[in-house]
Amino acid sequence: MDIENLMLLGALIFCIGLYGFLTSRNVVRILISLELILNAININLVSISTFMDSQELKGQVFALFIIAIAAAESAIALAIILTLYRNKNSIELEQFNLLKW
Amino acid sequence: MDFRDLIASLNTPIIQPEGIIIISLLITLFLDLLSQKPISWLPWIPVGGLILSLGSLGIRFNEVTSITQDFFNNQTIAFLGSFQGDAISIIFRFFMSLSGILCILLSLEYIEKTRTALIEFLILFVTATLGAMFLVGTNDLVTLFVALETLGLSSYLLTGYMKRDMRSNEAALKYLLIGALSSSFLLYGISWLYALSGGHLELNYILANFIATDFNSSLYLPLILITVGIAFKLSAAPFHQWTPDVYQGSPTPIVAFLSVGSKAAGLALATRVLAIIFPYLNLQVHILFEILAVLSMILGNLIAITQTSLKRMLGYSSVGQAGFLMIGLITGFQDGYSSMLLYLFIYILMNLGAFACVILFGLRTGTDQIKDYSGLYKKDPLLAICLTVCLLSLGGIPPLAGFFGKLYLFWAGWQSGFYLLVFVGLTVSVISIYYYLRVIKLMFIKEYQAMSLCIQNYGVNTLTQEDFSQATLTGKNTFSLTLIQPIELCISLCVFGSIFVGLASSPLIELIQKAIFYTPYIQAPISLSTNF
Amino acid sequence: MTEFIQTGSFVLLEAICVIGSLGIILLPNLIYSAFLLGAVLLAVAGIYLLLNADFLAAAQILIYVGAINILILFAIMLVNNSSELSIENKQSLKTNNLISYEPKKINNGFLWEDLVKLFLCTNLFIVLANIITSTPWLTPPFVPNTQSVVTIGRHVFSDFLLPFELMSILLLIALIGAVILAKREADYDFN
After folding, report:
1. Torsion of CA B143, B149, B155, B159, to 10 degrees
2. How far is A1 from chain B (nearest CA, A)?
């Protein structure tokens, strides 16, 4: 359990989350992949703070802020999805070109 | 630590401008919450707060540029290293406040016509401006991320504000997903910086510890990740794919703010991060940003030729303008940064002027297709002339301000030896004049049959078109000042600026160079300086 | 013995993370993905505990698993068509039904663009792994910090006071904005 293994874990989950983000057709799955990516970044930060910064623990404070901002972001994302879903039920979809990145 | 000592050591007068804005935001929120019926003068409180913050920024600037050279770093850092209030951050914050004021002025009537909640719109808007102001003064990686997310989250909410319009929802979702992805790339790069500096989060300490631990080849990874994150924010090609769709779907005042405020915030972030953390990777930074600038200029201007919607065309042209601004960023040192700041100021004025004219035209006719502008001069000559001035200034025609800004940019680039950038810039400037002139030519059509249907029925009550569901044109609006509506005030300020800022640019350049003189970290170190 | 327990539990938690995240992106059923996200988040909290970050582990479980994961499950339940599981709907392929449906996969379960993206992500991981293993990490001698709550509290109120206060404004407008977007208006058209 040294810093290289933990950073490798972080990089692996980051890439898996990135793949899920880029290839999902379902918007909620894209949100779930985004949470995976943010967790990978958090693992990175906490492991660096344990091995390199163990007296000041600044990485853990940063990770705490990231958790709070991820919560706000997913709340807003779900509000937008809800609005989209509500409109979709009552309006004909013709130019719904969300799949084209 | 004693509480009183802690408060005294925080150095809070540095964020006095942002404090004024926060107080005005809270006053607006509580007055709206506690009053039974809507107060008509409530929208002027955030505007007043922003104007007061402009004044406070002026006072701060005088203070910062009169201290002696020995005590630079200690006097301008606030909150124990989180915020840096030096001269160049004051200039960037001034630009953010100015763009906030102009964007609020041009959005009041639009929000009233669409019958959505006005005060919440203003609160979100002021928070976005606040996030941008904190972003340009950040000295700490955590403040960087939190301010970036404040700006980002408010922008996502504002983009989706017209919730009954399907395109607005789509644009908000797309902007949120792509924005979240780009900020997670930036965040991963930041975590690598934390690792490579041995556990420091303050920008100065990161640089100091890089040198100590000698990680030269691993520094490329955070550099590339941070560049990707910033390039999304600046909508530099090839990361500009989200720009046209989001710009077309969002309500037009928000497009105006995104095209101006977001770009200025991205540029300030790039300036600060690249100059503080990567000064020894100059060659790699230059190569990366040169690729971004050339691609932005070429792609933005070429694709703008084919657009039929004026909003989308202005969106693509703003991608090209970001390329021009990056020429100044790459040049660096005194001339590059001062030319970039001057062009940023002129760009804010002329871009917001163009968008304000588009909004006013949209309010009166309900459309933003270019072919519907034909013959505008006959029916509404003042609007046609204002739009003409702003578009010509964007194209860079003398003697308007855009010409002087581009001249200074290209001169600074040529002096420092970036011949490819200047050559590409000149070529695409000529190309861009074509699509700006196309709109102007359409406006000055004289035959009645060639005018569009909207212009033929101009001024009569028009009903639903693309932008809103039940828009009608009434005589006097709620927000009229004594003689003039807010959006007309905004247009006249921007047109006035576009005409005269270029001619009066010499005192402005002196001011900007004085600010750069008092900011040591972006000046040329003695060993790396070539020619000024 | 303690070394074995620590290494063993770390390998177990790592396996849960990796297999869970692979399951999240590969399983076609969205509800399985949401529950696997809960499992991954719990495993990450366990890793934080192994790294002496006790406060952060508690915060992770409370906020991520307890709030965000449940919010995602609510959203899935709210926008999923109940008729999605019937046979007739599966036959009519409408790719516009973005929120609650997955399009039929061709070519043995992969679209061609997915292969390109898989290639890109794998390359990215190989590059990252190379850089991680080739960087000479200079770690100081490990001294565990047993007072992580005190240290974090001290930082939040001295070093990181400005981002903390800015977060309060951010959370306020996230609240206001989410309510505005999701609110059902009185004169909503139902066509």
Report:
1. 180
2. 17
Supply the DSSP symbol for B259.
I
Only one residue has tokens 């396996």, namely C15
CB of B468 closer than 8 Å to CB of B252: no
Mode of pairing for the β-strands spanning B83-84 and B77-78: antiparallel
Collapsing DSSP to helix, strand or coil, B466 comes out as coil
Say if CB B335 and CB B327 are below 8 A apart: no
Number of domains in chain B: 1
Peptide bond into B399 cis (omega under 30): yes
pLDDT in tens, B339-359: 999 999 999 999 999 999 999
A 59-88 residues inside an 8 A Cβ radius of B: 59, 61-62, 65-66, 69, 72-73, 76-77, 80-81, 83-84, 87-88
Domains of chain C are 1-81 (1.20.120.1200)
Note whether C173 contacts B124, CB cutoff 8 Å.
Answer: yes
Within a domain: B416:
yes
Q: What radius of gyration, in Å, describes the C-alpha atoms of chain C?
A: 22
Residue ranges and CATH numbers for the domains of chain A are: 3-90 (1.10.287.3510)
How far apart are the CA of B485 and the nearest CA of chain A, in angstroms? 33
pLDDT tens, residue by residue, A62-77? 999 999 999 999 999 9
Q: Which two tokens stand for residue C37?
A: 């996200």
- Count CB atoms within 10 A of the CB of residue B450: 11
Identify the residue among B82, B143, B170 best suited for mutation to test binding to C, counting C beta carbons within 10 A and taking the highest. B82
Entry pTM: 0.91
pLDDT, one tens digit per residue, over B365-392 is 888 888 888 888 888 888 899 999 999 9
Whether residue B255 is contained in a domain is answered as: no
Structure tokens at B124: 């979100």
Identify the residue among C166, C175, C183, C185 best suited for mutation to test binding to B, counting B beta carbons within 10 A and taking the highest. C166
Interchain contact, C18 vs A52, CB within 8 Å: no
User: Does A17 contact C at CB distance below 8 Å?
Assistant: yes
Which tokens belong to B11?
A: 């150095």
Examine residue B492 and state whether it is found in any structural domain, yes or no.
Answer: yes
- The closest alpha carbon to B236, from B294, B286, B287, B195, belongs to B294
Contacts of residue B30, Cβ cutoff 8 Å, sequence gap at least 6: none
Does residue B328 fall inside a structural domain? yes
Chain C residues lying within 8 Å of B221, measured CB to CB: 128, 131
Domain span at residue B288? 282-460+485-531
By Cβ distance, the residue of B169, B199, B200 closest to A84 is B169
ipTM above 0.90, yes or no: yes
Distance in angstroms (rounded) separating the CA atoms of residues A42 and A39: 5
For A95, counting Cβ atoms within 10 Å of its Cβ (0-12 exposed, 13-18 middle, 19+ buried), the class is: exposed
Q: Show which of residues 26-45 on chain A sit within 8 Å of chain C, judged by CB atoms.
A: 26-29, 31-33, 35-36, 39, 42-43
| Cβ-defined contact of B169 to A37 (cutoff 8 Å) | no
C-alpha–C-alpha distance, residues C36 and B378, integer Å: 65
Cβ-Cβ contacts under 8 Å, C152 against chain A: 57, 60-61, 64
